[in-house]
Amino acid sequence: MPTLLQVENLTRHYGEKVLFENIGFSINQYQKVALIAGNGAGKTSLLSIINGDEPSDGGTVTLFNQASMAYLRQEPVLNESLTVFDEVYATSNEILKTIHDYEEALESSDKDRLSKTMERMDAINGWDYENRIRQILTRLSLTNLHQPVSALSGGQKKRLSLAKTLITEPDFLILDEPTNHLDIDMIEWLEEYLTRNQVTLLMVTHDRYFLNRVCDEILEMENGRLFRHKGNYEYFLEKSQERKEIETQETEKARNILRTEAEWMRRMPKARTTKSKARIDSFFELKEKAANKTWDRKMTLGMEGERMGKKILEIHDVSFSWDKLPILHHFGYIFKRREKVGIIGRNGSGKSTFLDIVTSKIRPQKGTVETGGTIKFGHYKQEGIVFDDQSRVIDMVKDIADVVQLSNGEKVTAAHFLNYFMFPYPMHHQFVYKLSGGEKRRLYLVTVLMQNPNFLILDEPTNDLDILTLNILEDYLASFQGCVLVVTHDRFFLDKIVDHLFVFEGNAVIKDFPGNYSQYREWADRNKRQAALAKAGALKEAANSSAVIKTKKPGLSYKERVEFDNLEYEISELEKEKRLLESELGSGILGQDELVEKSKRYSDILASIDSKTERWMELSEKNQE
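Request: output the structure for the sequence above.
Response:
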């Protein structure tokens, strides 16, 4: 495949900090590449430089073959004065402008205008393109196209920005954290969309299942250097670990040699021969190499937490709704010690509202929520908190506690706790305003955990955290002695942490599933298959029963017998068409007009089956008289 993007000797500094220096890589057409790095390492800066939004301090970026490019930023850039409809089609793309005019003509009922736009649609073959646009908007739950952009939530704006990026169908696609603010159904649809379509992709994401299933190459950026791994996330883990083990061995070897050399340097030989000068130079090289950090970050940091009594959290017969949208209906649950519960469900199904009810920020309309006297909540909110940008990192945590009590009785300083969560000592006196978005989220997490809660409430904790931080958080939660209630769309995180799931199915229906996400998905898929087989079996049994009845028709006239036989065949054919339409309507690949047409046909078929079945039963009873 031809090369689409070439990056050579690229360098970027942020003040005195070197984000990356003299890095280079290329991406071929239809490659799907992920960029992995810690928070603050310069991932977003690199994407912005490639897109031309930010200058570099050296090097070149070349996009070949006049390729078009679209960039999904972490923070959406939208025109808030427009409606969703106008924002979607706000582009210089001729096909999109034509579809926009057609949609407006359709709504205006202006026949002349509609006729002209339909001719233009025919000329550019815009119908398939329009279908794809509607499918993307539907799958991302952007159905109210007349809503002002200014009225959208943060999550809706991110989904609108993603929809605009996909709709343009560029030659080269850059996605910065595309799974943030998507529910699990949307993420799995996006996985399939990117895998199925021939698209050249460079993306940053912390979603490890998404990485593994979509990408065929991973770029790892660390300490200003770039490492290239051909393969998916699973392959990357294997090779990255091998490299880090070798680097650790080399660092330890350098430290051992350094001890010998340090003793020699202390003796400070008087003879400054060429040989001794070379040895002094070598000493400083060794010192630099020995200072390299090793990669085994694993250390036990079990938090003591507040003592937990017998009564933890009891929810009794709780009901709640927003206007006409039911969230909970006679819901009850009694939490037990060390329970770790995941909450999943579509956006808008009430997950965050449930957390607010649990923590008494919202009062239930019916029922009670009782919290044990020893329970201390630690609530990590999706919207985060507002930091004082002029404060230093260490001051933010020292305002909470100077020392933290561990479960083994030991105490660690606030600085040590920061270091565990990847804030090395040189960063402690850095001002908050210098932190990246991901680093601020990590600092917020530290401030929640430092308060020694025994019941953690985590609302989308995986958004904007890098993969290494997620691993540290997962290790922390695995040894956490309290309860955990977590809302997240990160399937990998759910599989590693939770004992069971509250599945918000919508309309106040909540299922308590005993297992992690992968087990739930397997169970749900198996249930769908079994339901389909049961339905097919029932249809077959009904057909066999009608065949038995068909042999006895003494009570029917000749004309009625012909009608009776025809009805059996007609009902059978209608049932086949009904099953086909159900499959098509649920596929998500139909265009708007086709969707309307097939929905109407589905309603007609249901009515026809009902009337023909009623007539068949009438004749069947007469047949047995």
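The first helix runs from residue 43 to 51.
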